[in-house]
Specification:
Elements lengths: L1 E5 L11 H10 L3 E5 L1 H8 L6 E4 L6 H10 L2 E4 L8 H12 L4 E5 L6 H9 L13 E4 L3 E14 L6 E6 L3 E7 L5 E6 L4 E5 L7 E16 L9
Parallel strand pairs: 1-2, 1-5, 2-3, 3-4, 5-6
Antiparallel strand pairs: 6-7, 7-12, 8-11, 8-12, 9-10, 9-12
Length: 228
């Protein structure tokens, strides 16, 4: 089963067609997950989450009542906890619902501490086995994660650029069949190989690493600088 999760990040960072994406996912039988205020955002779009996770401390009593009256599976957390709501959601989604893939929206923008845990929470040792199954998208970026292995990374949508960011120490990180190739690289700190591009006529590039974890960040400019 595939799923889409909406977190509580600011609406101005959402993909412009998010409502249509979520409605299409719902129609295709995918699971819809609301994380804290994300559950309310879904209801405001006329979409009922199948699962809601959070302490819901950002909701007014009447808003929480609306969520509780509609969502069939609600997992409550407490404000003081070791795992964030987004980490709890990832654990529940993969362990209880046995998801194949999960797309996250509303994970960036606003408070930096929230954005960072949403970006890096998949490195939690209990969650990292699911890293390859998670993607995160906002209005300008698409992020996928890869643990050690060899992959053909496909082009996606209208993203003009990609970067590969080391999230852990890595060994033998290699990029081939891209505008800028990377010879086997070993490193022990967070480093990002940015502003790369797919080769004309190729639908993917080759990525491999012997150990570690990376994020592949697809991105696009929202302003065309040749028209400024």
């Amino acid at each position: 089963m595939d799923a889409c999760a909406l977190l509580g990040g600011p609406k101005e960072n959402w993909p412009a067609d998010l409502k249509e994406r979520l409605a299409a996912a719902k129609a295709a039988g995918q699971l819809l997950i609301g994380v804290d205020r994300g559950a309310l955002f879904m209801l405001e779009m006329g979409l009922a989450p199948d699962l809601a996770v959070g302490d819901f401390d950002s909701l007014k009593p009447r808003e929480l009542s609306w969520v509780e009256g509609v969502v069939p599976d609600i997992r409550y957390s407490v404000p003081k906890k070791d795992w964030t709501d987004s980490e709890l959601m990832l654990g529940i989604a993969f362990e209880d619902y046995q998801l194949d893939r999960l797309k996250l929206y509303g994970a960036t923008g606003g408070r930096m501490d929230h954005s960072l845990i949403n970006l890096f929470g998949i490195l939690n040792p209990d969650l990292r086995p699911y890293a390859n199954q998670v993607s995160l998208e906002d209005k300008q970026n698409l992020i996928i994660y890869r643990n050690a292995g060899s992959y053909a990374i496909p082009q996606e949508g209208d993203y003009a650029y990609f970067g590969v960011t080391c999230l852990t120490p890595v060994r033998q990180l290699t990029i081939k069949d891209a505008l800028y190739e990377l010879a086997p690289y070993d490193g022990d700190y967070l480093r990002s190989f940015t502003s790369n591009e797919f080769l004309p006529g190729r639908a993917d590039f080759k990525l491999s690493l012997a150990s570690g974890a990376v994020a592949v960040v697809y991105s696009k400019d929202l302003i065309r600088f040749d028209q400024v």
